[in-house]
């Protein structure tokens, strides 16, 4: 996998992990009991995006490490998927 391909896959996986990790640990204004006038009670309370970025980066590094191990260590690629799962030929 070239560097450009690796970076493209990294960014795609990072965005997926970001959207998966955004609701983790989220506290709403309703949960805190302090609803700001003019907002909905389901609006987030406090800052949590930085932690979501950090979680997404760590999860992406783990996924990319596994992908790197499969492609470099075992020599597998996307073309080998039909051979790994029976019945996809």
From TrEMBL:
Keyword Transmembrane: yes
A Pfam family recorded for this sequence: DUF1467
Superkingdom: Bacteria
UniProt keyword Transmembrane helix, yes or no: yes
Stretches that traverse the bilayer: 52-70
Keywords: Membrane, Transmembrane, Transmembrane helix
Protein known as: Membrane protein
Organism in which the protein naturally occurs: Nitratireductor basaltis
């Amino acid at each position: 996998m070239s560097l450009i391909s690796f970076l493209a896959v990294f960014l795609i996986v990072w965005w997926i992990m970001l959207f998966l990790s955004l609701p983790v640990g989220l506290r709403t204004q309703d949960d805190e009991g302090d609803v700001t006038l003019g907002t909905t009670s389901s609006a987030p309370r406090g800052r949590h995006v930085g932690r979501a970025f950090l979680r997404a980066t760590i999860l992406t590094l783990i996924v990319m490490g596994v992908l790197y191990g499969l492609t470099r260590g075992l020599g597998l690629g996307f073309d080998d998927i039909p051979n790994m799962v029976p019945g996809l030929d």
